[in-house]
Amino acid sequence: MERDARPRSVTPGRQRWDVRLVLGRPRTAELLAAALCRIPGITEARANPVTGGLLVRHDARVAAADVGRTVRRAVTVIAGDPAGVGGRPASARAADAPAPRPHHAPVVRPVLAVGTGAAAAVALVKGSALTRQLVALGGVAVATGTVLRKAWHGTADASPEPGGRATSDSAPEAAGRGAGRHPLLEIVGPHRRRLSCAAALSVACQVSEVALGTFLGWTGLVLIKGQAAPLARLGLTTASAQLLGLAGLVAGACAAVAGLSYASNLQWRRLGQDVEHDWRSRTYRHVQHLELRNLEGERTTRVAGALTDDVGQLGAFFAGPANEVLQLGTSLALLVPAFLLLAPQIAWIAFLPIPVVAWLSLRHQDKAAADYAVTGERRARLGSQVINSLEAGATVKSFCTEDHEAERIDELSEAAQESSRRTDRSTVRHAETVRACTTASMAGTLLIGGRSVLNGTLRFEVFSPLIGLPQMLLMRMSRLGGIVDQYQRTLASYDRVQRLRALPVEADGTGGTLAADQVRGDIVLDRVSFAYPGRVPALEDLSMTIPAGQVTALVGATGSGKTTIARLLMRFQDADSGSVLLDGRDVRELSRHDVRHAIGFVAQDPFLFDGTIADNIRYGTFDASDEAVVEAARTAEAHPFVAALPDGYETVIGERGAALSGGQRQRIALARAILKNAPVVILDEATSAVDNETEAAIQRTLRGFAADRTMLVIAHRLSTVRHADRIYVMDAGGVVAEQGTHDELLARHGLYASLWQLQAGEPAA
Ligand SMILES: Nc1ncnc2c1ncn2[C@@H]1O[C@H](COP(=O)(O)OP(=O)(O)OP(=O)(O)O)[C@@H](O)[C@H]1O
C-alpha cells in the first residue's frame, strides 16, 4: 500500500501526502478525509481528487509518525472495502485501530445464488409461459435490487455514524441529538410536520399522475374498441358518453396534478428554506461562542464554508431530491403491484429497463462527479486568478504586465472550458442513452404485450392503459444517480456541520462575577507560560505587574509575545501555567464576558464593519448618544477628519473600512474603545499608522481619559510610550529584558536605549 500513499512533506502539525487512490474519485477523497477527521488529534484533513493530494493537520496530541501510520491504514481500509459492506461505513472503520476486516458469510451466499440460478433455469426450460415470464420478472427484480443495494452502500459510506465523534464531543446540544436516528430525520429536526405535509402532497400528486395516465389509456380504448369496461360499469354505456366522462376525468386529473405538484413543490422548497435557516442560525449561534483559535486564520474559511455551502446543501436536499425520491418510491409502489395483478406476463419487459437505467444513471453520476470535481477546481482557480489580477491592478499597471495577466486568464479559461465540454458530452450522452432505453422498452412492451393480446392471454382492455405508465417510472429512474449523489453530499455536509457544532465553546469561569464599575484595574502576571498549539512557547515564566490607574507600556522585539499578553488578559487564550490576576482574582475563574466588559481593547489590526462611522464607533455601546460618539471621536482625534467628510458620521466606510486610510481606521477603532469607557484599556499598536503630529495630539487628549483607569500600551514607536509610568522591554522567547521609566531605561544604556537611539536619532543621556 506504500505506493498508494506517499508523504510529500512533513512539518510540525502538518503533513502533505500523495494518495493515488483518491485521484479522479471525489467520493473516495471525501471518505478518506472524513475518516481521518474522526481521529482525535487530527484537526483537519482534505483530499483533492484532482491532484491526488492529501493535507492533514494535527495538534500536539498525535506524533507525526502516528499520523503517517493512520493515513496508510485509512488508505488501506478504504482501498480494500470502499463499499463498506462490512456493515459500518468504511470511513468509520478506517478510523479504528486496527481496522477489522469485514465479516462475510463466505459459503452461504454463493450456495444460495447457485441454488436460485438452477431453480430459475429449470423453471425457464420446463415451466409454463406464465412461469417463464414470472421468472424473468424475478430476474429483473434481482437486478434492480442489486443496483439499488450498490447505490445504498455508496450512500452508507458517506453517512456519519449516529452517536459518532461528530455528535459526541463536548458541545452538549450537539451531543444530545442523533443517538440512533437517521441523519435525515436529524436534519429535518422540528420541521417534521411540514415534511409530512409535503410528502402527503407528493404521494397524492403521483397517484393523480398515474390516474391521468390510466384515463388517457381508457380514451384510446374507447376510440379503438368503442368502449372502456370500467366506465361502462359506472353507467356510461355509449362511446360518446364515455368520451365525455373521460374528458371530465382527464381535466380533473390534470388540474389535480398541476395543483398538487404546485403545492408539494412549494412545501418542499419551504421545508428546504426552513431547514437551511434553522441550521444556519443554530450553528452560527454556536460558532459565535467557539474558542477564538477556531475562528482565526485559515479556519475562518472552513467555518464560513460550513455556514454557507454545507448548510445550504442540507436545505437543498429537501427542496429537490427528497421530493424526487418520494415520487420514485410512489411510482414503484403503484405500478409494480398494478402490473403484477393485471398483466404479470408483460411485467418483466415493462420493468426490464429499470435496472439498466438505474445502473447507467449511477455509472454516469460516478463519472460525472470526477469531471465536475475537475471542472469545479479549474473554475475556482480561474475565479481566484481573476480576483487576484483585478486586486493587483496598481502593481500590474506599474509593471506594464496587462497582457501577461490576460494570457494567464486565457489559459485558465481554456482549461475550464475544456473540462466543461467533457462534462457536457457525458451528460448529453447519458440523457440520450436513457431515452433510447425507454423507447426500446416501450417498443418491447408493445410487441410482447401485443402478442399476448393476439394469442388471447392478455385482454386489450387491460393492456392498453398500462402501456405508457412505465415510461413515467423510467424517466424518474434516470435521476437516480443524481439523487444518490445529492444524498451523499448532504450526509457529508451534515457531518461537517456536526463537527463544527461539536467544537468546544469557550468555557466560562467558576469563581463568580465581576462588575465592570467596581474594577480597580490592578493586573498581575504571575509566572505565566503559554504556547500556541504546535509552536514554541510565546511566553515563558513571565511575571509583571500593571498597576491600577497607571500607564504601562510593552515594547520590544517583534514576536516577543506582547500581543499574546493582551490576548491572555482578554481571555482569548488561557495561560498554560502560572496565572493572570485582575484585582487579585485569576481571570480564568471569572466570567469571560465580565472580564471583556471591563477591558477596552484596540487590536493591532482593528476590524471595522461595513456601515457608517457612527455605527462603528457605537459598536458594542449601542445605546450611546450622538454627543457621546462625537466626544469619543474628539478624544481619539478622529473628529476633525470625520467632520470634514461630506456625510460626516453618516459616511459609509465599506467592507473593513476600505474607504478610510489606515490612520483614520485606527482612530475610529480608538474612539470605539474610548466610548466603551472601561476601567482597563489595552492599546495594541493603536496609533502605529497615524503621523507623529496626530499621535502627539492623541496622546495629549488620552492623558485626561487615562487619568482614572489602567492603560496598557503596546508599541514599536518608542515616542508613543515615553511618558508611560512603567515600560517593559520584551525580548525574544517572551521574557522581560528590562523595565523602568523612559529616563531610567535610557540611563541603563541597554536594549531600550539603543532602540531609542535608532528611532529618535538621539544618543541616550
Ligand atoms: N494565532 C497564533 N497561532 C500560532 N502562533 C502565534 C499566533 N499568534 C502569535 N503567534 C506566535 O507567538 C509569538 C508571539 O506573538 P505575538 O503576536 O504575541 O508577538 P508580538 O510581540 O506582539 O509581535 P509584534 O510586535 O510583531 O506584533 C510569535 O512567535 C508568533 O509567531
Automatic annotation (TrEMBL):
**Protein topology in the membrane:** Multi-pass membrane protein
Q: Which UniProt keywords apply?
A: ATP-binding, Membrane, Nucleotide-binding, Transmembrane, Transmembrane helix
| SMART domains noted in UniProt | AAA
For this protein, the record's Pfam families field holds: ABC_membrane (PF00664), ABC_tran (PF00005)
Q: Where is this region: Disordered?
A: 154-179
Start and end residues of each ABC transmembrane type-1 domain: 198-489
> Which residue intervals define the domain ABC transporter in the entry?
523-758
Q: Where in the cell is it found?
A: Cell membrane
Where mainly located? Answer: membrane
Q: A single Gene Ontology molecular function, please?
A: ATP binding
Annotated transmembrane regions: 199-224, 244-263, 332-360
Matching entries from PANTHER family are given as: ABC TRANSPORTER (PTHR24221:SF601), ATP-BINDING CASSETTE SUB-FAMILY B (PTHR24221)
Record-given protein name: ATP-binding cassette domain-containing protein
The organism named in the record is Streptomyces lancefieldiae
Lineage of producing organism: Bacteria, Bacillati, Actinomycetota, Actinomycetes, Kitasatosporales
